[in-house]
Amino acid sequence: MKHSFLDKYSxxxxxIHKLDPRVKIITTLFFLIVVMTTSPIFLWAFxxxxxxxxxxxxxxxxPILFILKRLLMLIPFILxxxxxxxxISKNGYAGSYNLGILRNLGxxxxxxxxxxxxxxxxxxSFLSIIALILLSSTSPxxxxxxxxxxxKVPSIFTNIASFMYRYVFVIVDEVQxxxxxxxxxxxxxxxIWQSKVIGNMIANLFLRSYERGERVYFAMLSRGYDGDLILxxxxxxxxxxWLYLIIFSIILVLTMFFTR
Amino acid sequence: xxxPDGFLDLKTTITTAVASAGGLGYGVKEIRRKLGDKHIPxxxxxxxxxxxxxxxxxxxxxxxSGHFLGAALAAILLGPWASLLxxxxxxxxxxxxxxxxxITALGANIFNMGIIGGVLTYYLIFLPLRKxxxxxxxxxxxxSAITAWASVFIASIIVALExxxxxxxxxxxALPAMAGVxxxxxxxxxxxTSVVLVGVINxxxxxxxxxxxxxxxA
Lengths: 260, 218
Fold this sequence. Notes:
Oligomer: heterodimer
Helix content of chain A: 55-70%
Radius of gyration of chain B: 17 Å
Distance between the termini of chain A: 51 Å
Largest sheet of chain B: 2 strands, antiparallel
Strand order of the largest sheet of chain B: 1-2
Strand content of chain A: under 5%
Number of strands of chain B: 2
Mean pLDDT of chain B: 84
CATH topology of chain B: Arp2/3 complex 21 kDa subunit ARPC3
Structural class of chain A: mainly alpha
Mean pLDDT of chain A: 81
């Protein structure tokens, strides 16, 4: 089993990696809320947001190519918005039906309103995806979950997520074995009725996973499991954590102050 | 279907987040009452299953593909509230671990796939159809297939609505495009859901609570 599709660079050693995950969760959330509520007119603010991410990226030593590859994921979504942007009217909001397609095209293909919409979406979605990658690449996933737990996220969610994290690799392994077996038998999925093969694979996968879940549950029950997990949270708030939190917040509050 | 950050405006983000939080609050209470905290390992492993199943792309036509959502399947197999919980955790992990779907859009994504695609279609389509169609294997599979198709189709319409209410894309072109594509993806979802259910019925019929004891369910 060799999977690194989750938290790939989380075991690197850097200042950012050593910070308490709670600090990273709070700053990331705060950062994203500020970014999302900034109007796209203030281009300089987005430059500041990008610089913040760039600095964190450089300190944390995460390869830039890794982030760039992840950004490709957004392209279909952006295309969807760009294709429909010409139909957004000059003076109004895009949801209304009474603005006929032809009349909008008459406005000139890309009017100022639609350009703003596209810019808004592109800037914000790229900034946020980088922020999320930085969060998950600078702390081990299990410790991140415990951080959420310490921040009073209900334990039922963090517990389910912990189990999911524990078994997702086992089950993905199973999927890869099944896919290899299927491809070795000349499967070439091209048309919708060939989906039946996928259905059979998923049925098999479900039964194997469910029965594994039952076995795990009984094994844990017989070892005294009472519905909660025992935590092993490795971090404590040091002065440097507080300092990072405070400096980060001050920068964000300042940009908020000047962009509203 | 996973809406990234930045595509929704403030009012849509907040409305869907509040709706999702309300649904989850009720869902957690239901799960605690029916299953107890102790079934968490089972829910966790099933969440890992949904996650892995979403990695399998199915063909639509001529080389394009869609991936399996699983909200309807999970609702039919484990009940609507367990499915909401599982979908929520899967979406949260996809968002945090893969940056797939945004964190401020998480409420909206849970709303579209968990509440609309899982819980609502279960109560508005699955249960009524289950009562009217004959209680045979074929009747059960037809019901499930329609539910699976509807869960994808309706969720895609809701996504188009949210995008246009946010002013990100115009409704009159985006809605037909989204709905058209997802009507096709929905067929794939329906086929897979019913094939999975046939497999489970053949091997462990006791796992499908709706199939083994349909009359007890309210």
